[in-house]
Amino acid sequence: MPVMPCALTDAAGVPLGFERTSRNSEFEAGQLFERYDTNRSGTLELGEFQLFFRDFKKQLAPFVDEMLAAFHATPPLSRMGFDSAGLPRRHPPTNSFGEPTTTNPWQQRPPNHDSSQRVFDTRHLYESKLDQLHALSEKTLRHLQLQKLDHGQYPRHQAATATLPTWTRHAPPPSMMPHHHHNTSAPRWHDMDELERDLAFVDRIYTDTTKFMEQAHRVVSIEDMNAFLDEFPRMHGMVQQIAAKTYAQSPPVNSHQPTHSSSKNDVDRDKLVKVKDQMIWGLLQERNELRRQRDAIDAQFRHMTELSAQEMRKWAKLTDDMQAEIERLRG
């Protein structure tokens, strides 16, 4: 019995046609094609088709099952003969003992099914591990940035990297090399340098994983996915080790340094503080003097302005009186 066409829906459950008018179906099928044709080439590449198949796998299963059933119901030409009337006669398949066997079409799969399933499983594993590494690197990056703020601002040394991310380029920091842990009793003089290197290393991993996650429909080759999966245990382990590390705020004091050096430094610091206080006191006095001069100039300006206004009012009154006297004499 043929399977009736079903209505394809997107992730939000909005139907995409195929049960409405043929014109709507063609229009919405074109919209569906353009949604997955990310590079606008007019054809769906392997990665784009895998995304389409993953989104509509459940709805396309009845069509695929019907096609497989029709394909396996037709015997190969080598198993066909002719009866006495000249009509083709089909021979059922037999086992090694010559007995007829029944073939279940539901147990048969096309030759390329295994490879397609492997690609789909690889992509699913790649995306899940990418999300896991991105979340861990983001959490570790925030932790290292807080440690850097707690310990003060230090110059950051970052190695130049290429623009395109390559997983094999992420070399571990020197603090994670095997020879770094030979002498565990040695004083940790470069803890802040380790913090800078670890911060740069985790920042590169976070930046690269963010770039890959932002390109949701990017066509990633199977070689790139396998390369990432091969490098994932090493990178994930290194980020976990960095997240568990602690950093000293300042290097330890050298026991061979003379004890009077600290007192000498204190005396020099006190002298510098006194000079600084004297400079600040002088600047404050100069500021107060400038303020007094400014206030005096402002007061003098206001006084002159008032005198000018009084003089103008006086001349205006005299002009009015003279005009009135002239009008009186004319009358």
UniProtKB/TrEMBL annotation:
Domain EF-hand: 24-59
Keywords for this protein: Calcium
Lineage: Eukaryota, Sar, Stramenopiles, Oomycota, Saprolegniomycetes
Name of protein: EF-hand domain-containing protein
Segments for region (Disordered): 86-117, 248-269
Bias kind Polar residues: ranges: 93-110, 248-262
Domain of life: Eukaryota
InterPro entries per the UniProt record, alphabetical: EF-hand-dom_pair, EF_Hand_1_Ca_BS, EF_hand_dom
Gene Ontology terms for molecular function: calcium ion binding
